[in-house]
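Researcher: Good morning. I'm working through a list of sequences from a screen, and I'd like to move beyond sequence-only analysis. For each chain I'm collecting a predicted structure so we can compare shapes side by side. This is the next one on the list. No need for commentary yet; just the structure.
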Amino acid sequence: MLGEMNRAYPVSDEHLNGYRRNGCRSDVEIRVGLGALGMTSTALQVVMLREFIAAADGNELVIGVVLALWMLLTGAGSLLGLLVARRRITGWVRACVLAAFAALPIVTVFLLRFLRNIVFTRGSTIGLVETVLASLVLLAPYCLIAGLLFAVGASVLSHRTQGGSLAAAYSWESFGSVAGGIVFNIALAAFFNSFEILSLLFAIDSAVLCFVFLPGAPPVGGRIALCAALFVLAGMAFRSLDAATRGYLFPEQEILYFHDTPYGNLTITRQGGQRNFFENSVLMFSTDDVAANEEHVHYAMLQHPSPRRVLLIGGSISGATQEILKYGVENVDEVEVNPWILRAGAEFTNALHDGRVRGIAADPRMYVRSTLSRYDVVLLDVPDPSTVQLNRLFTEEFFRDLRRVMNEGAVFSTSLLGATEYQGTEARGVGSVLFATLHRVFSHVLIVPGERNYFLASDRELDIRIGRLAEERGVATAYVNRYYLDDELLKQRSAQLAKGLDSAGAVNSDFRPLCYARQTAYWLSYFDFHPLPWIVAVGVLVFLVLWHAHPVDAGIFAAGFTASSLEVVLLVSFQVICGSLYQMTGVVVTAFMAGLAVGPLVARFLPRPPTIALYAGIQGVVGGLSILLPFVVLWIPSLNMGLFFFQGLFAAFAFIFGLMGGLEFAIAASVRWGTMEAAASRLYGLDLVGSALGAFLMSVCVIPLYGVMNACLAAGTVSAGGALLSLRRVRRPP
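Model: Good morning. Structure tokens for this chain:
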């Protein structure tokens, strides 16, 4: 293998002298630098992703944009390595670049929080184009430098070993990413806020990168003293920035509480006498919103003659429990996936103080599957299905699970943000999918229109005369009564809404999240943005570029696209089956990176020298695994095992697909002819570009519109196409 690499990558004294002039050190230090680069990049990626979600009211669309731009910009930085790897760079320039690389994450998060309500209208929703532009501007400096540093370090290491360590450089960077994922998920995320994590990574980057790339390093004692000084100074300088800058996201509000939980950032503010509860900067509810609490509770409770046991999912500390207790119920079970919400509710509200109210910290899907309790009324008080996580609470599978824990004649209620009978096409699309899904499970579905449209479902007849029912029951209400509601007008509006919806249309399911897809289209309609022409244009451009590219380059692009697509499929599938993706994301990403790191090591045991046929064969195997994956995913829920089993199983799948990706990169590094700089930059850059497009298209378009099975088929087709392109005749340059 090494002999083949020597012929593929010409090494000259000019190359090596150029790297020595630029201050590059021993092979060990370069490996340490690459590992540190991977470790800090992975941890920073998770921190940045959380911050962008909080600042941009993020759903999977925003997540897809940020991840895609992160990988695209890093890939572009890798390609920039071609321009700088052999040039003489002064010590001052190197020092400035490395200082910027270490400090940029802190500056980026500060600017993100500070500028959110200055650049964009306070309280407004940020559109997709604005999100792309803001992400591009803020992420570009760090990601470009990160990609450039990898390309330079990888090419230096490969030259010094006469071409034998290009794949090893990729492996070292991946091992660093694994370490970063483990450290972040086990230690940093649980005990430190964003700026504390950033200050720690600033100290690590400053120490390691200076030792690797700058000349004149001090002796060991001096290095230790410098590291200690960096850690102390970083901690002192940036520790208090988190609390100071969080106020920029909530202007003119007093922050009472904030905490980065494993499920998202939870912030409680006070404005006047009202307390506001935010998750990832999205308002969940406010206290003293009597009208909203009454509508959410009484529309459903009035339909049941004598409710005794009530299940409340979400909205547990908004004040809904006080309205439920007016019916003399025996028990109210409040289920919240985030236990910190229940803790905050106990401290800042009286929602949990009654002995009949029981707070339960659990994933709603998992709780409903396992509980032995039976309920007369089930109230689903969660935001609209604007994410895959929320969509799983609006699916046919979940409604059927709920039906099994409901007594005969029980009533279910949920709601969507509405515009009465004057809904646009996109809003009707969301309502139609929910309407049809409920009709698949319940005999009767009734829509009660208002600021939010309430969907009531039951096997008993439902009555739209809400005002009359409230008067007959004698429940004390401020708004839900005959003085506030005109039953005849309500009946007309309800019939008009139902007439505009299709009760026999498409159904929302776990592995085809149509409510999320329609909700995303509804959100995009606010900004008059139509993504299909852009997606087609990008697809055509990518196809034309790859068709004329070197076959190995086309193959590594397809490998990156397929690997990231399958990673997204695993994350979405785990979220559907188990929930709690916010915690599991780091586990899956870490397992995937571990596979990438091990792949080049496994490549050493393959036949030598590796051939294009072997390269294409592995891509064909990945394509076959892609096609088999959805059948395995659909079978997994029938195992009925615990959460830890599912976590281990999905981590194993991620490791396998990462392993195949690392193996493909290692073989590509062996069969790609040209200079070392070109190989290191092009392969790493194209791998990241393919990964970016795969992650974005799968999370934003393919999975929501066509489901998990078709997403896997698409990924398998791309992998098979990469294999065919790789088998095109490869001619060595003369």
